[in-house]
Amino acid sequence: MEVTIDNYSTVELDTLPINDSWDGRDVHENLMHRIHAYPAKFPAFITTKAIQYAESKDIKVDTVADIFCGCGTVAYETVKANRHFWGCDINPVATLIARTKSRHYDDKKIAHYYADIINTFVLLSFDESDAVANNERIKYWFLQEQIEDLSRLKHAIERVVTEETYREFFLCAFSNILKSCSRWLTKSIKPQVDPIKKPHNVLNAFSTQVKMMRKANDQNEIKRSFADIHTANCLTNSVEHPFVDLLVTSPPYVTSYEYADLHQLSTLWLGYTDDYRTFREGTIGSLHGENKLSEHLKELNNTGQDIVFKLYAVDKSKCRSVSQYYIDMQNAVKKVYQMIKPGGAVLFVIGNTEYKNVKIDNARHLLESLLNEGFTEVEAERRKISNKILTPYRDAIGKFTTDKNSRKIYSEEFIIFGRKPLWEKH
Ligand SMILES: C[S@@+](CC[C@H](N)C(=O)[O-])C[C@H]1O[C@@H](n2cnc3c(N)ncnc32)[C@H](O)[C@@H]1O
Is the pTM of this model over 0.90? Predict the structure, then answer.
């Protein structure tokens, strides 16, 4: 990498040359990565490069982890490379997709289960007492015809598919058709009703989705799964984790996505909650945390304090959520340090944003956090994000725009690498 850093304040991250070897524009991604939409998905090739990079530093990489595993991009690539993977994400929809992606399926079984699901769907009548179908939020997003069909389809899957792995496969398919079968504005990542949208027919959408997933499975490069994936808050000790050789991850952002809100159709339909807002709690980057600004100021590192002070002058409420975010990220770095074996490494992919002309310098904050925690051989690279060059802003619903008053999206992001020393200083 270009620069080894021992003092975060002397390095000018924004003027680092763009390193084209971290540009994955031409790298083919396996179709399994596209079986379910997920915001802020990680470019798949980064995992392979991260493993190679760690090995070039004589780290023997048997186990890779991702504490913000999202839809399982790192999981898939790690298992594909025949290494063990351990991951967690606070969002149960994310871990459902991640588990589904990192397995191989017998196509004959998929076909057999699919035929049984459709036969059962046809025979089942709509159960008017289905709690999900009666949820007010579901009624807000779906027309009655789709509600009845989705309810029958979900019951058919649960009744017919007895093997857990295949049941997750079909529930993942079910989850990915929800947006197109709802009134959710098609091009919007964020929740917004399209009053003139004609939602898709449930069975047609399901059939197309299963076909696509079968094709992906046909090209699947995973033959055996070594993935252990949990729904958990990485900041708590709710699940046991192994000690790992390498951790590859991209943290959540603040000021951009409210993850719990984005996945509400799936969390409600899959019965993970009857109030999607409960998932905001614990989600790093949520704007709905408590106000602990004065406590935070003492704990924030220098970069965090600097950004929070600047934000205080322009937007006090945003300043509170950003301070919570940086405290959470500092704790996440502590957690990462504990999880890595002595001599092992971490590789983060992280981007900056801007809010009302205040630069939200996540990369510098992370760099300082790694150094404070005791990581050594800390290095940074700047890489181009392939498809974000022409429209560098996002509007209120998350669509790309050239409107300069919207939230700025940088067309570059950073790769930050650090190593846990073999011997710790006392
Ligand atoms: C940038 S995304 C990761 C995307 C992932 N690399 C992929 O390719 O899908 C960040 C993830 O962090 C998760 N997250 C937020 N807070 C968390 C927490 N406290 N513990 C675990 N995961 C969390 C979000 O649900 C989201 O999936």
Answer: yes
